Please model this.
Amino acid sequence: MEHQKEILSQQNVEDIVGTVVYLEKVYEDKTTGGGSGFFIEPDKIVTNIHVISDGAIDSVKCQKTGTTYTVEGGIGFDDRNDLAVLKITETATPFPLGDSRKVRKGHIVSLVSYREEDANQVDGTVNIIRNSGKHHRIEFNIPTKKGYSGSPVVNAKGEVVSVLYAVEEQSNEETLTNYRAISSNLLIPLLENAIEVEPLDVWQKRDRIRAYEVSYQGQLSHQHKDIKEAIAYYDDAIKRNPELADTYHRRAAAMKGLARSDEMVSDSLIAMRLNREQFNISRIGVFLSWQWYVSKLAFRNLLFRCGKKMLDDDGWAEIQVKGIFHSANIWISKGYTSNALQLYQFTVADFSEVLNHKSSKSKQEILNSVRRLYQKGMNNLTEIINRNPDNAESYYYKGIAGNIFGELEDQQRSPDTAQRLYHGAIHDFTQAIDFKLPGLRVHNLRGQTKNLLAKLETKHGSTETAQILYQEIVSDSGNALGLKEKCVPCRLAIHFTRGDAEAALENYDASIEDYNNALELNPKYIQAYINRGKAKQALGQHEAAEADFAKAKELDPDII
Model:
């Protein structure tokens, strides 16, 4: 009977007692963002760690009443489960705390938010309960997905039973979306064992807190198809906080995209064990399902480990590299060119590492073998262009492949092959631009390839050719930056590449201006500080140069 009441006795938003706030943040580059929170005691707000892990809180406001509140600092946080409790100077009406252990699959719950100008209540259905009540997956119909992290999820009595923290996936072709929420019972120890108030700017510097922001940067890189950069961010986040199960899941997804099954399985297994399903008689099916899935992962992981033991590290890596090249060529032949290029990009770095440990004879045999594989990929791309010579996107993809393999040959001290590949890539990018391929990314990649070629020419004594290439970069960059597209990462990269070219031409003032522009777009761009410092040194501005080097070292102590 109680279960039936939970489903049928939903309240209107006006009947729910409690104050919800929106926490707006300002970042170093002056952009804004934020998330939600709610009062759980008259002077305490609950939100997610990832909502406040970076940036300065500009305002905490209840949109319903227009009241603003002052954050004194943090007094409790669960850095494994993305929960934080903040001390507030003023007071407001708190939500009553419910018992999340009573939540069942199929219950109707309500998400309460005042993120927008008007009060907002959305009813949803609990789909899945995991880890014996610790995590809820709830299906809500919400038109926008941003800004709801930290919102309270209430039961029919208006009691908070969970805290929203992540969008999971679109569940169907409608607007229903699965959201993940954390059990409100995890708040009880945070409230009972509150620590002394810690200023947020101090708290944000904790490694286990920084891990949330670093992991989010990995997500962004993954969305922008830069899997190599994404994995580097995920590695950093896990190093800072080894208990973030979601980050292991994200890194596993990235490894899957790179056809690195052994590492994908290992990360998935760690994530599952971190969110271990506890035995509960009422959820025996979920527990057995979890045990079966973990057993399968553990068996696959054992097979991979045995394979690695049978071979040395280089032998295993060599097999992986060749297998991935084959997979990439299959992707190209099926028309999934962008997937193949992601595999090429990441695998080339691994391949170069393998070659560094090989004898000269073995190295040459492996290099020749992989050259045949990537030549097949280049031939496949050329065939695609020949079938449809007016397709700008095909030129773009072939240009990326030429850039990737040119760098590989450059690293392996094969300047003639590298030069040929770079020239081919520049031609392909130019064709894509001439065929009106939209987007600044193609301009950026052409500039970066010219920069690589210019450095190669300089290394081999062709300084005049290099100077011509640097001048072309400056001219091309000016034209590209005049386009109206608002691609911040592209504009940042174009400014940076032009800054390098200007420095190579000894136009140091212009170079510094470009690095300034790059840093306005991303104040944490370490290499821009270093290169700007070198340009200032060339102008005799030694004190300013040292300040740039110090800033780079502050951002990454291992960089210099």
Observations:
- The domain at 2-187 is CATH 2.40.10.120 (Thrombin, subunit H).
- Residues 360-387 form the longest helix (28 residues).
- Confidence is low (pLDDT under 50) at residues 1-11.
